[in-house]
Amino acid sequence: ETGVTQTPRHLVMGMTNKKSLKCEQHLGHNAMYWYKQSAKKPLELMFVYSLEERVENNSVPSRFSPECPNSSHLFLHLHTLQPEDSALYLCASSQDGASSVTSNTGELFFGEGSRLTVL
Amino acid sequence: AQKITQTQPGMFVQEKEAVTLDCTYDTSDQSYGLFWYKQPSSGEMIFLIYQGSYDEQNATEGRYSLNFQKARKSANLVISASQLGDSAMYFCAMREGTSSGYALNFGKGTSLLVTP
Lengths: 119, 116
Description:
The complex is a heterodimer of chains A (119) and B (116). Chain A is an all-beta fold. Chain A has no helices and 11 strands. In chain A, a hairpin with a 2-residue loop joins strand 5 and strand 6 (53-57). Chain A starts with a strand and ends with a strand. Chain B is mostly beta strands. Chain B contains no helices and 12 strands. In chain B, strands 2, 5, 6, 10, 11 and 12 form a 6-stranded mixed sheet that branches. In chain B, strands 3-9-8-7 form a 4-stranded antiparallel sheet, with no helix packed on it. The chains are: A mainly beta (119), B mainly beta (116).
């Protein structure tokens, strides 16, 4: 069992639906991330939360809405998505601020991802 | 501009042989960190190895080693004594001093297939 748990693992939704992806980390970390992984493209950083505050919104369309109620939980609310939004959405966590950029104690721990299909 | 370049979309290696997965990076920062992750078909990204820009020695973790050539801006992953379970996608990633939180920039990945 990983330290980062994502639900649901698979989701199929229509373009008019509203759904949410959930991420929970059991590692005591204080930073959480959403990445999008599409076929044949690099992982794209979507959102970063550090100490429950959003520090990065990487030009993501407003149909994606993140929520971080506490340091252990992260949500991605989905509304009126497009077929091109179909992808694997990966959640990650890390211990922010504990070390410098050049230290290996800040690696990201990932969940297994939520596979989203938009019809 | 792409910060991490992995030029090998797919690689084959025979079991028990060594394989090198290429990674070049682009940054103007003096302080940065380089990571390699493995992604099996289950989807989870598994951290393998890390190299800091100031580290003078190449990083090693069991069968994984990182061939760090700073002047060439390359950070190739070497897997020795390949096993069937090494078949997966492998991603090179970089954290720069300007990264938000500790976010990583990833390359497109290399698909490795280990054959018997």
